[in-house]
Amino acid sequence: xxxxxxxxxxxxxxxxxxxxxxxxxVFTKAKGHKLWGRDGKEYIDFFSxxxxxxYGHNEERMKKKLIDYLANDGITHSLDMATEAKEAxxxxxxxxxxxxxxxxxxxxxxxxxxxxxxxSALKLARxxxxxxxxxxxxxxxxxxxxxxxxxxxxxxxxRGAGVPLNYTVTMPYDNYFGAEFDTIKYxxxxxxxNGSGLDLPAAIILETVQGEGGLNAARFExxxxxxxxxxxxxxxxxVDDVQAGxxxxxxxxxxxxxxxxxxxVCLSKSIGGYGLPLALTLFKPELDxxxxxxxxxxxxxxxxxxxxxxxxxxxxxxxxxxxxxxxxSEKVNHFLQSIVxxxxxxxxxxxxxxxxxxxxxxxxxxxxxICREAFKRGLIMxxxxxxxxxxxxxxxxxxxxxxxxxxxxxxxxxxxxxxx
Length: 420
Ligand code: PMP
Fold this sequence. Notes:
alpha/beta, seven-stranded mixed sheet, four-stranded mixed sheet, globular, binds 4'-deoxy-4'-aminopyridoxal-5'-phosphate, pyridoxal phosphate, PyrdxlP-dep_Trfase_major, aminotransferase
């Protein structure tokens, strides 16, 4: 009788499961920014499927398109064959996203998930440049397959591979050593100096805001200087926008306000719109060097994802959506700043950008305790950072004011309960 609600998972599923430990409930239903547990309890979602649900759960217009498509026996699986659903997506992505931003990228479908996009980016950069080495940054996260893991700045996660992973050099991200240390000067010196032992890399891969690594947001000037380094040494710049892209930071691509133009961009998570698996790798046309089949995979054409993704792009047709994200981001920032000053016991620091913000807590385990308390009170949030020290707020971008206010109020109550 007093069995855990997760009994079936605890006995039948591998120990590697993680999210279900943080959110001990069995979920049955979700709509917009809300989820419901089997016991009928309602939760506010400040997690958004780790960024895969920027438009919320079961968004009405996408749902209707999907239901119509299925009702008409639309093709679901098609490898990379040409389908109408894919054609419509490619055209709309070009017209609504690339063209207005004067971005000239070829689109590739590398496989269903974010890590597939990163793998393809790394492989392509190595093929194009004929170099092996790749520079990545402290606290980065790029995925769980071996190539992506090789460029991930997290010792615990890399240890999962069991063996050392080659061809990567980890450099300090912006502000890693604090403001007084010039990470750009350090990188330049290593590239210039024959004595550094640093092999010229094929690529530099980075997130403009590190989602898993603690919501560290690079300064725009830092990103611009990294781009300059790439141009000077003929290094390809890969921006992994799997988590920070699709509007999470306020613009469709996270790098837009920095005015940089990466050679390769990785997208996944919310590009599928409805939480359906889809990934894109965008690259400059001159990098389109692979022969057909040189990078392939079975699930490169999830037509249901194309149907939802095409509808999702409608949000980006006018600037109104970006403006709303900006307003909500400002509200969240204002709220977090006041929390940090009103609860000195947190020793908190506000991190992040857009609707990708949070509070870094100085005390070990405090962020985790806050998230657990919030879950009990009906708010789903996860921690981020190498020691899980950041409370991460990741509401759907479409959340209404009432939902956002309610979630923020639960967060404050939870902080109050834990800190006092
Ligand atoms: N890159 C970044 C920046 C991510 O945040 C993630 C997922 N958290 C990935 C890559 C990997 O994506 P996926 O889990 O879909 O393979």
